């Protein structure tokens, strides 16, 4: 293995949420002379509408490495990513590996690096749903316990790590997705007309996203969610950018003429849809936060959330998959005057999280380079 003459960071991404989070960090690292960032794309999300469009819209540098692991079981996908990442680490070893969130790509990147004694930085460390049936929970817990640096979005995340015995390398930096909204929000408003593109007047529709396996792979939960959506659509039309996972089962589960099912959209389109919606229904962690930043009420189609502060602030309601709970929460939210609701300014930072992370990475790389070799 040959070491680079310039401190090198390998950023490992593979799924839509990670492309979004990587964008502001890549910009912050690019602004720092003397650092080199290489991007590895595992191909966990491989459709152009779930992958390429994010690189194009957000100005993310083209990946230096693409593995194209594709779909498969959790074991197959993680194993393929782990093998491919390890090969890259052998050929061009970085000083440090950065992973994001809680996907199989996150776990594979962390394991491949730590087994080769390469430090791991985990962005969005410490998030917990406390539901070990979720594969995402297993991924984030294991990643935190092998990581060298833990970048936390909230005090809750810091406390979660400390309860698990992790007390070093913790940095409270805020939510990197707040950076994305700050950087790309105006571009979304300027370039995307929701009315022209989707035929929906501002604040006259509900936005739905649903992709987590706990919902899409469980016929009872999915039926309950779709039953609620049909009832909500009687009051306001619903726009549903459908993830490939749920598109595979939707043809056998008709929704309603007032539910517009569309392919996944790019980040700017998604921001525009969120900012113009009257209400958001979602099982996505990222969308829960983006709805808060957009000052749009959210109903979460899960029984728990890692982003507990959004619920405590009153802008997010956990409704699970029970149709009556979902409809009740949705109608309550639609009837409330949110212009008078208290808004938690700065709940997850000020939108400059990427710069804080870049500061820590630069200091850490300098320390690693200065340390005596084995």
In short:
With 374 residues, this protein is α/β, with parallel strands linked by helices.
The average pLDDT value, as a whole number, equals 92
Report the principal-axis shape: globular
Q: Strand arrangement, largest sheet?
A: 3-2-1-4-5-6-7
Largest sheet: 7 strands, parallel
Q: How many domains, as an integer?
A: 2
Topology of helices and strands:
Layout: E1 8-13, H1 16-30, E2 36-41, H2 52-58, E3 65-66, H3 74-91, E4 96-100, H4 104-115, E5 120-123, H5 135-146, E6 149-152, H6 155-163, E7 170-172, H7 176-191, H8 194-198, E8 206-208, H9 213-216, H10 219-233, E9 238-241, H11 244-247, E10 259-262, H12 267-276, E11 279-282, H13 285-293, E12 298-300, H14 308-312, E13 316-318, H15 323-335, H16 353-370
Parallel strand pairs: 1-2, 1-4, 2-3, 4-5, 5-6, 6-7, 8-9, 8-11, 9-10, 11-12, 12-13
Helix pairs in contact: 1-7, 1-16, 3-4, 4-5, 7-12, 10-15
Kindly describe this structure:
The protein is 46% helix and 14% strand. The chain is α/β, with parallel strands linked by helices. The protein has two domains: 8-174 and 351-370, Rossmann fold (3-Layer(aba) Sandwich), CATH 3.40.50.2000; 183-340, Rossmann fold (3-Layer(aba) Sandwich), CATH 3.40.50.2000. Strands 3-2-1-4-5-6-7 form a seven-stranded parallel sheet, with helices on both faces. Helix 3 (74-91) packs across helix 4 (104-115), helix 7 (176-191) packs across helix 12 (267-276) and helix 10 packs parallel to helix 15. The longest helix has 18 residues, at 74-91. The chain is globular and about 65 Å long. The relative contact order is 0.13.
């Amino acid at each position: 293995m040959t070491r680079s003459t310039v401190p090198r960071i390998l950023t490992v991404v593979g799924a839509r949420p990670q492309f979004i989070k990587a964008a502001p960090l890549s910009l912050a690292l690019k602004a720092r002379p003397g650092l080199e960032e290489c991007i590895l794309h595992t191909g966990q999300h491989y459709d152009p509408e779930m992958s390429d469009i994010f690189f194009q819209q957000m100005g993310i540098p083209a990946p230096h490495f693409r593995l194209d692991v594709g779909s498969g079981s959790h074991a197959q996908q993680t194993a393929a990513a782990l093998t491919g990442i390890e090969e890259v680490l052998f050929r061009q070893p970085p000083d440090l590996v950065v992973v994001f969130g809680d996907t199989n790509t996150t776990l594979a990147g962390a394991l491949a690096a730590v087994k080769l004694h390469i430090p791991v930085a985990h962005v969005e460390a410490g998030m917990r749903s406390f539901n070990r049936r979720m594969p995402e929970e297993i991924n984030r817990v294991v990643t935190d316990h092998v990581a060298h640096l833990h970048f936390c979005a909230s005090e809750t995340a810091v406390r979660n790590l400390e309860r698990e015995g992790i007390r070093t390398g913790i940095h409270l930096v805020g939510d990197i997705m707040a950076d994305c909204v700050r950087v790309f929000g105006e571009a979304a408003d300027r370039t995307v007309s929701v009315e022209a593109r989707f035929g929906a007047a501002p604040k006259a529709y509900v936005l739905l996203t649903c992709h987590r396996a706990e919902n899409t792979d469980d016929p009872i939960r999915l039926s309950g969610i779709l039953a609620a959506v049909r009832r909500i659509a009687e009051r306001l039309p619903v726009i549903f950018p459908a993830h490939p996972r749920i598109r595979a089962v939707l043809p056998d589960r008709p929704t309603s003429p007032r539910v517009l099912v569309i392919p996944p959209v790019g980040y700017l389109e998604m921001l525009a849809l969120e900012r113009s919606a009257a209400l958001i229904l979602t099982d996505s962690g990222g969308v829960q936060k983006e709805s808060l930043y957009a000052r749009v009420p959210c109903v979460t189609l899960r029984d728990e959330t890692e982003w507990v502060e959004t619920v405590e602030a009153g802008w997010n309601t956990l409704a699970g998959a029970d149709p009556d709970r979902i409809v009740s929460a949705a109608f309550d939210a639609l009837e409330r005057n949110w212009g008078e609701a208290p808004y938690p300014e700065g709940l997850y930072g000020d939108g400059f999280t990427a710069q804080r992370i870049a500061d820590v990475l630069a200091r850490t790389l300098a320390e690693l380079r200065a340390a005596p070799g084995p």
